[in-house]
Amino acid sequence: MKTLIAYAGKTGNTAKCARQLAIHLNNVTLVDLNAEQVNPADFEAIIIASPVYSHKFEPSVKNFIKTYLSILQDKPFAAFVTMVEYDTFNKVITREIPEALRNKAIAIENFGGEVNNLSPFGWHDKLIAKSMVKLESKKHPIEFLADAPQNFNEQLKKASWT
Ligand SMILES: Cc1cc2nc3c(=O)[nH]c(=O)nc-3n(C[C@H](O)[C@H](O)[C@H](O)COP(=O)(O)O)c2cc1C
User: Mind listing the GO biological process terms from this record (predicted)?
Assistant: First the structure.
């Protein structure tokens, strides 16, 4: 299937996951929504990928969903996030992906995430990130979730997404 992976991010984690996922799919186009515009109408199936910052998707991903909602609803659709506050996954997904799209999604997964580059952020965000990492690292390692991409791929395969 002619697949679009539309992703964005600030420190490269989501881009890295998107590239790794692309290896397992045929006929795939990767588009960084912070750098380029793309129309999902030109593809047969869509995967969106976003990091979570302050409990929200990257604005360009949010805009993409909003702008093309009716097109996304008409095609095979899946999404993944990279994030570290695992407890908030459901809340973030419920808020950031409209119900109709969520209900038809083939897969929506958390790929985990790292926080190892704070240079793009101001002092306030740096403080928030450090305290978040301190708190979350008591619950789980701050790293990519090893099983998540495979899990995601298996769900795509079950839906005959190749
Ligand atoms: C300033 C800052 C705020 C963040 N806020 C959240 C958050 O609210 N929830 C969460 O789960 N992860 C949060 N994270 C972790 C990022 O989502 C995670 O590092 C993600 O993989 C970054 O993706 P990117 O490299 O593609 O930008 C935050 C990280 C930073 C640096």
Answer: heme biosynthetic process
Cα(115) to ligand 1 centroid in Å equals 7
List, in order of start, the domains of the chain with CATH numbers: 3-158 (3.40.50)
Looking at ligand 1, which residue's alpha carbon is closest to its atom 8?
54
Residue 101 has pLDDT above 90, yes or no: yes
Give 47: exposed, middle or buried? Use CB within 10 Å, 0-12, 13-18, 19+: buried
Give the predicted TM-score (pTM) of the model: 0.97
In the 8-state DSSP scheme, what is residue 56? E
In the chain, DSSP finds a helix count (H) and a strand count (E) of 6, 6
79 CA from centroid of ligand 1 (Å): 16
Rounded to the nearest angstrom, the distance between the alpha carbon of 83 and the centre of ligand 1 is: 5
Tokens representing 129 are 């990130």
| Strand blocks (E) in 8-149 | 28-32, 45-53, 56-57, 77-82, 107-110
Integer-rounded Cα radius of gyration of the chain: 15
Dihedral through CA 151, CA 152, CA 158, CA 161, nearest 10?
A: -150
Q: Cα–Cα distance between 113 and 86 in angstroms, integer?
A: 10
